[in-house]
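Revision sheet: structure tokens.
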Amino acid sequence: MFKLAHISDVHLGPLPRLSIQELFSKRITGFVNWHRNRRKHLFGSTLDLLLDDIRAHQADHLAVTGDLVNLASGIEIRAAAAWLRALGDPAETSVVPGNHDAYVPGAYEKSMRAWYDYVRGDLAPAQWQEDRHIFPYLRVRGKVAIVGCSTAVATPPFAASGFFGARQARDTVNMLRAAGEAGLFRVVMIHHPPIRGATTFYKRMIGIRRFAAVISTGGAELVLHGHTHLNTLHWLRGQVQPVPVVGIASASQGPGSIKPAAAYNLFSIDGSPGAWQLSGERFSLNRAGDAVIPESVDIFAP
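Predicted:
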């Protein structure tokens, strides 16, 4: 049995001191939003509690579906790189970027360069290359194929949308088909929810129909996303049967907010092609904010 833990929207804090030049951009809106809203509810200790619990459950792999930082300043990107290194072996943690990781033009490239060991496929070059597409990537762990996709793009102020383009769609289909032919359980990681109506218009994913076609054509057994800071379950049409699309609360969300407290999903994957067995448990921060407890027996149960 393979155990896969899923967290998202880490939003490592607190915010560093930024120069006037750094704030003279879209970052000023995020800076104000952080100090008015996010800093009241996002706590680093909460993230530590989740990670300790994941370790206690002996997860084989950790999937992080984006938004490691807040404003994608250089200091934040380097701090996130140090946080990733502290998690352990890059082979045991897979990351895809979120909109906050590409907050302003140029931030995406800086983030991917700094976090490259966690966002590159098994056959990718060992060193970052400026002119090379990273996504989608493929990592094979036991009987599981992890396919990482990116929707992270810089957007104007007051927008947080993502983009899934034709080139990435074609490559993802080919990757999923090859993984299926190899008899692997296919997990797709993406930041924005690939579900119409799952979030507001200005936070939506552009390319939802394209992504749905990828899943129905290429095949997959599980899709993981973040972005909404909500614990959600949707379904997309698959080649043989519907594919679960699972979202998760922010890994740094403290109690007392309108959004659910921090949580992680733990998936157990077993079986073989045509007879895969998938179950998922959710573990959430308690009301006191000092422990992580099981929220439900099976997140796929009605």
